[in-house]
Amino acid sequence: MKTVLVGVGQAGGKVTSALVDFDHEMGFGSIIGALGVNTAKADLQSLQFDTVLVGQDRVKGHGVGGDNELGAEVMQSDAREVMAALDGRITAEAESIVVVAGLGGGTGSGGAPVLAKELKRVYDVPVYALGILPGRGEGAMYQVNAGRSLKTLAREADSVLLIDNDSWHSSGESLEEGFDSINANIARRVGLLLASGEAVEGVGESVVDTSEVINTLRSGGISALGYASAEASEDPDENINVVTSVTRNALLTGTSLPNAVEADSALLVVAGDPETISRKGVERARRWVEEETGSMQVRGGDFPLDSGRLAALVLLGGVERSGRVQEFMQRAAAAAEEAEQRDEESDEEDKLFQNEDLDNLL
Ligand code: GDP
């Protein structure tokens, strides 16, 4: 799927960078353009692609400090500059636009929904978002911001591919230490998904096509992606269990959104040397995905790759009713309530102090 990426905010820029690097290293050529957008000048400096600094009149290049309402406002007022920078990059070749952002911060959290809306207004290709959820250990502000942003983003974008920062990082690392490895993991998985419809070698009936990705995401709302791989045998008949077990692992343990299994639609892509892919294994794996997700719309296809391993990518569309998303929304709502209560309490305290001041005066 020929894609133009727009990375908004710090996480958005870094994840976009990782995706661009992976696509380049693999020689896929599915990312045909990238742009970084931020309110913080320093965060744009390390990016290898063109960038736009927004909100200079409001924050003078210093970022919005986690204020996602301000993030949304500056994106709204500078939308024209961002759209102008994208003009000419989103060519007729483009099959999708992906807005990438961390949902817990300020610039990406507030800016991504505004930008997605603007892009949808102007372009005919699907506008997706790659949204990063704060990990459980991140503070209340991150949860509140992400809750708000996710709701709006799911409404504005054609689908929000959601990645929980608690997934895909090695245990024993702090979240910050883990960012590079999380970003590399995101890049590998999302990069393979974007490239999966691009295969030119071994084009045949079973090869997955870009339209399957688009159709799987057509149900809108929130989507998730699972991935797992394993060593393969040269004989496809010996790989029945390899295909079924990588599929199970992709959905049950290798997903971007743990425990999000119920879905409206799904796509199972089996990647590897076409000579080694067991058709029987693929058929069984697909039926298993149908049972597990409760979806009658499970598409499938191969992604021919020169590799001694077999991998499964499972894309789930319409997971917003799954337990994981509901749990996150409750966590965000509880954090918002607590923050409100704290505000009220500090208002009360302010009043008390004011009264004391008055008392002292009298
Ligand atoms: P912004 O620049 O104001 O949009 O804020 P950030 O992009 O820093 O957003 C903060 C959120 O993104 C937090 O939930 C962080 O955990 C997460 N985050 C920041 N940097 C990275 C990164 O490089 N990778 C990932 N996966 N998450 C990040």
UniProtKB/TrEMBL annotation:
Residues 2-202 form the Tubulin/FtsZ GTPase domain. Residues 337-362 have a biased composition (Acidic residues). GO terms for cellular component: cell division site; cytoplasm; microtubule. GTP binds at residues 10-14, 106-108, 138, 165, 183. InterPro entries: CetZ, CetZ_C, FtsZ/CetZ, Tubulin/FtsZ-like_C, Tubulin/FtsZ_GTPase_sf, Tubulin_CS, Tubulin_FtsZ_GTPase. Its main location: cytoplasm. GO terms for biological process: cell division; microtubule-based process; regulation of cell shape. The keyword Cell cycle applies. The keyword Cell cycle applies. It comes from the Archaea. PROSITE patterns: TUBULIN (PS00227). GO terms for molecular function: GTP binding; GTPase activity. SMART domains: Tubulin. It is found in: Cytoplasm. Signal peptide: none annotated. Residues 331-362 are annotated as: Disordered. Keywords: Cell cycle, Cell division, Cell shape, Cytoplasm, GTP-binding, Nucleotide-binding. PANTHER family: CELL DIVISION PROTEIN FTSZ-RELATED (PTHR30314), TUBULIN-LIKE PROTEIN CETZ (PTHR30314:SF10). Involved in cell shape control. Belongs to the CetZ family. This is Tubulin-like protein CetZ.
